[in-house]
Amino acid sequence: MLRVIAGLLTPKTGEVTVNGQLLTPGTYAPKTGALINAPVFLPNLSAFSNLSLLAKIKKQISADDIKHWMKQLELDPEDSTPVKKFSLGMNQKLGLIQALMEKEDVILLDEPLNGLDLKSKKLVLQLLETLHQEKPATTFVIVSHDKFFQDFATRFLYIDGDTITERGSFDDQLL
């Protein structure tokens, strides 16, 4: 579902509109940040170097912005360790920063708390809440089995195969 919303896959039926733009084959969702599946980076570069390369695509944020984001999730921008030596949690934090750092209008997150310890999970939730307060029109689509999102979410959709149903709250009995 996230890949369809992002414009990475074409739906078999129906159509997808993101911020008023119909996604046709070959087009991508406008102003969208995404972390779908496990993040992949250039393995021999540092976290800061990877994020800097990604930031050059749209040229919306500075090196200082990247450093700020990294510090918020307790990654050291001065650390030259190549990302291939990162733990699952460190790699997940890097993927989250990449998805959030440009403060896009739509944020797609697939199991964003995967591999994170309790402290880091709380940091991510605080970061998402702060981003939402700074830019309340941001739409977050978060796929998660983690109850940490039950107080953050405003809608709960459950996907079972090709069936989507809406529920009033997080229902762990369905898991």
Automatic annotation (TrEMBL):
Pfam families registered for this protein in UniProt: ABC_tran
Designated name of the protein: ABC transporter domain-containing protein
The keyword Nucleotide-binding is annotated on this UniProt entry: yes
Domain ABC transporter: 2-114
Source taxon at top rank: Bacteria
Organism placement in taxonomy: Bacteria, Bacillati, Bacillota, Bacilli, Lactobacillales
InterPro entries, per the entry: ABC_transporter-like_ATP-bd, P-loop_NTPase
Alphabetical UniProt keywords: ATP-binding, Nucleotide-binding
Organism for this UniProt entry: Lactobacillus nasalidis
